[in-house]
């Protein structure tokens, strides 16, 4: 057994079922080993941003890591943006990066690069295997590291000769540390704050947004009168009829500050203190108002479910008493193609069990209210702020949950970063419906230009924010990668196309001209 | 004047005429400054790999740096692959990366990332501005660093508040160090080796491949009987009728070893010792045969022109005596669509002054012999081995040389990494003809799988190397980004399409089905 074969067998034994791959020469022995050692589904992506984003989407829905397979140096570089997003989502991922053979590195061949240097900013764990004998052990450690709370991108760098050399040894995944229990002092402090009722807000993130943990949070709110809110961006949020409905902190700085302005006590549950996405002149970076007492019940690495259960018990709340969202759909809308009308289409037609990947950026800011009462669904967001995750994220989510409809809400500017993942959707016949919001601009930046105080933009500045010259044709782009697509310019056409897409079990894209 | 305005004015004064941009919120003040301070042409790209590759192509043809404008952290990440290629091409580039405001970084907002860590592996110079007052000075230093031999990616990280704060000061570019003169001992040693004639080979790279320096090398070869060869991958190589014709070291390891096997004395001129692109089991990493004396006349940072002139003088060679390539075009071919026939089409039709961007990978290995006698042209290659440079490179080259025809030879697998740059070609109405070699596979990896000794690939492995399910439709992809395109499946159709493309002055793409 060579090192590559020990890697694949260790991954299989360790519960890794899927590998999103874009390999090169230095990874050829790993590719060959995937033939000889059965048990892993290989999903080819045509760009590494697709690999990383798909592995992220898979992890969010499967609750366990996929492997990646990336080419040395710059191949890893192409994955960095979506690895950054995955790191911010706290998604478990076994990120496998090939490299030159150990003895070849010092020749400084053209592709030689500093893999550790590139991996460090986006990885929670990094290791370089030094021989075929230790590849299995290192892979087992990578699996464990990826699954250690709160979830990590674990990057394993494999020189080519560790793959092709004999002596590989399959290893067992070591015990994974349990999430840290929250001390009773934190429970007591949170209970005291919650009992104050109005003026106290629980800020929820990470696994505080599962259905069960939302029930606990909802019960605490029902019992004490405290408020609930979620972070501006969340890896996965359970929503819809039967769930405890929670709003998010808005993205625009003034709305965010307004949402929190009357909060006296902010209790953090499974996330970090709320901050502005960017700095804006004259505006604070921390969103909690001055004088607000900010305390942490549970960090993302803590036992969030245990903390919420203990807090519920401390205040005498029972999960069954949580106020759950009633089933309620808006009427199918008529009239102009505006954000609220689109939200009504989603609210009216979202199917039971839908997985919504939301990279809508500006277009989607009003989607939450009208989708709240739709059948139970999951809502996945751009967690790290690096646009270009939606199409890959939907791809990975669909691989993880083949029985559910994935609906990807995609801004046109963002979609262009990683459009190649549409091809993977076609190749794997994934059940993904993509809606591209074709406003033909970096619309968000037009707002940001004002928000940062850069007044009176001229032609050069506006040209840098406009995608209308030439207009992108998303139907042709999708068709060019084997994905069925239609363009709609009216609400009626959008409704018809959405209904058509719901009947498909293969990829379907709707270009929604705004 | 704020920091952003001082940046733009310093760039303008320092001779930077073009900025390839994909900005975000933290760069909005720089975008606004581009309106208020005239003198820079802004070229928008929809993905940062396009930005970096275009700035590289611009630098190769303009001989001076363009600026980039990249979004913080992951935006830089998306550019890394083509920054790596630019570093290997030794292209000057002022790589401007925004970042959070200085005081915002420690809040760890979602986009917070280690910009220096990401920039280090791909930059020859890095600086982070600390206040508006020093932005101009830092930008001037970045220009100087980028232009210091052999050419560098100079990364300047600009926190948002250094842009929007008043107090910016325009700075003058400091003196740029001249390339290092080569000592007479190196000239003497090279002259001694050259005079040995057969058995001596000059390995040329970087600016040793300009027309003038090729003349000197050709004169030395004509006088002494030594041989000339170029590196496997070169940033820019002057070729065609009237130039000294030089072959390249082949990419496949066995051919590379065979090319050098009889060399007794290898003299390096403007490059580094030849090495295998990858390690292959049982094959050496260094390409020079055992016992071959390898010496360096000039490193890439040295005065290459001066060294060649001194060497020519030492051996009594005169540039006018170089053996120059005669004008000679192959007949237009008939028959099957094979690599040699395609080469004949290129050789027969390449126009005077063409700029050939070559990311043909396997398809293009036979292109050199039949294009040697075409009218004078430049040949630009993938220098760093990170595929996905061709479309951006052609974009930047066309911006730098609007009066010349750019012909981009593009492998389909490689083209998919950065296809977004086609949109920029359409937007800027650039004179680029793209030929996509649609073999619908990572053909190179099929060879590499064997070359590294991974025998008998099975279905999983072959699936990872095949792009035919579904087949990409490059006509639709190009049209979707506003680029005119045709598909050809016969040589006759290719010839017709090529002639059509030559008549266009706007982007034109030919999908060549192989």
Overall tally of domains of chain A: 3
Number of strands of chain A: 17
Mean pLDDT rating of chain A: 96
Report the largest inter-chain contact. Answer: A-B, 100 and 100 residues
List keywords for this structure.
homodimer; 514 residues; alpha/beta; Rossmann fold; seven-stranded mixed beta sheet; six-stranded parallel beta sheet; 17 strands; globular
Can you give a write-up of this model?
The structure is a homodimer of 514-residue chains. By secondary structure, chain A is an alpha/beta fold. Chain A has three domains: 3-164, Rossmann fold (3-Layer(aba) Sandwich); 184-321, TPP-binding domain (Rossmann fold), CATH 3.40.50; 339-513, Rossmann fold (3-Layer(aba) Sandwich). Chain A contains 20 helices and 17 strands. Chain A has helices at 3-13, 28-36, 48-62, 74-89, 115-119, 132-147, 160-164, 184-195, 211-224, 253-260, 304-315, 339-349, 367-371, 390-400, 412-415, 421-427, 443-451, 459-464, 474-480, 491-503; strands at residues 18-22, 41-44, 67-70, 93-99, 125-128, 153-159, 200-204, 227-230, 237-239, 265-269, 293-298, 355-359, 377-381, 406-411, 432-438, 484-488, 508-513. Chain A has a seven-stranded mixed β-sheet with strand order 9-13-12-14-15-17-16, with helices on both faces. The longest helix of chain A is centred in the N-terminal third of the chain and has 16 residues, at 74-89. The radius of gyration of chain A is 23 Å and the shape is globular. The model of chain A has no long low-confidence stretch (mean pLDDT 96).
């Amino acid at each position: 057994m060579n090192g590559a074969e020990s890697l694949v067998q260790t991954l299989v034994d360790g519960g890794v079922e899927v590998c999103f791959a874009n390999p090169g020469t230095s990874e050829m022995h790993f590719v060959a080993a995937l033939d000889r050692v059965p048990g892993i589904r290989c999903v080819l992506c045509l760009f590494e941003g697709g690999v990383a984003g798909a592995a992220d989407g898979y992890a969010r829905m499967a609750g366990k890591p996929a492997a990646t397979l990336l080419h040395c140096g710059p191949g890893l570089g192409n994955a960095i943006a979506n690895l950054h997003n995955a790191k911010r989502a706290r998604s478990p991922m076994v990120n496998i990066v090939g490299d030159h053979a150990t003895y070849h590195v010092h020749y400084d061949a053209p592709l030689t690069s500093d893999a550790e240097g590139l991996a460090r900013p986006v990885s929670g764990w990094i290791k370089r295997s030094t021989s075929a004998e230790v590849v299995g052990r290192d892979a087992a450690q990578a699996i464990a590291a990826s699954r250690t709370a709160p979830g990590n991108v674990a990057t394993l760098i494999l020189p080519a000769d560790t793959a092709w050399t004999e002596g590989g040894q399959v290893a067992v995944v070591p015990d994974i540390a349990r999430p840290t229990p929250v001390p009773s002092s934190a429970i007591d402090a949170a209970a005291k704050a919650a009992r104050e009722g109005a003026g106290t807000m629980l800020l929820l993130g990470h696994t505080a947004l599962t259905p069960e943990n939302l029930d606990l949070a909802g019960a605490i709110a029902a019992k004490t009168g405290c408020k609930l809110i979620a972070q501006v961006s969340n890896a996965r949020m359970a929503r819809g009829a039967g769930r405890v409905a929670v709003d998010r902190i808005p993205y625009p700085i003034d709305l965010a500050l307004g949402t929190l302005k009357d909060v006296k006590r902010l209790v953090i549950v499974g996330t970090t203190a709320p901050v502005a996405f960017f700095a804006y002149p004259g505006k604070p970076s921390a969103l909690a108002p001055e004088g607000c007492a900010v305390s942490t019940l549970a960090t993302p690495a803590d036992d969030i479910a245990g903390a919420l259960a203990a807090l519920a018990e401390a205040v005498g709340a029972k999960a069954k008493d949580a106020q759950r969202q009633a089933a309620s759909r808006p009427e199918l809308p008529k009239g102009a193609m505006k954000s609220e009308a689109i939200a009504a289409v989603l609210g009216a037609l979202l199917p039971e069990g839908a997985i919504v990947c939301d990279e809508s950026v500006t277009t989607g800011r009003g989607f939450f209210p009208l989708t709240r009462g739709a059948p139970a669904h999951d809502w996945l967001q751009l967690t790290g702020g690096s646009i270009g995750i939606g199409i890959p994220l939907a791809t990975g989510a669909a691989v993880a949950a083949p029985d559910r409809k994935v609906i990807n809400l995609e801004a046109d500017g963002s979609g262009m970063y990683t459009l190649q993942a549409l091809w993977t959707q076609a190749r794997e016949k994934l059940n993904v419906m993509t809606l591209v919001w074709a406003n033909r601009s970096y619309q968000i930046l037009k707002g940001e230009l004002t928000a940062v105080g850069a007044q009176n933009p001229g032609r050069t500045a506006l040209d840098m924010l406009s995608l209308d010259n030439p207009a992108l044709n998303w139907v042709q782009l999708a068709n060019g990668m084997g994905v069925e697509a239609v363009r709609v310019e009216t609400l009626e056409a959008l409704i018809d196309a959405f209904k058509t897409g719901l009947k498909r079990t293969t990829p379907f894209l709707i270009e929604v001209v705004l």
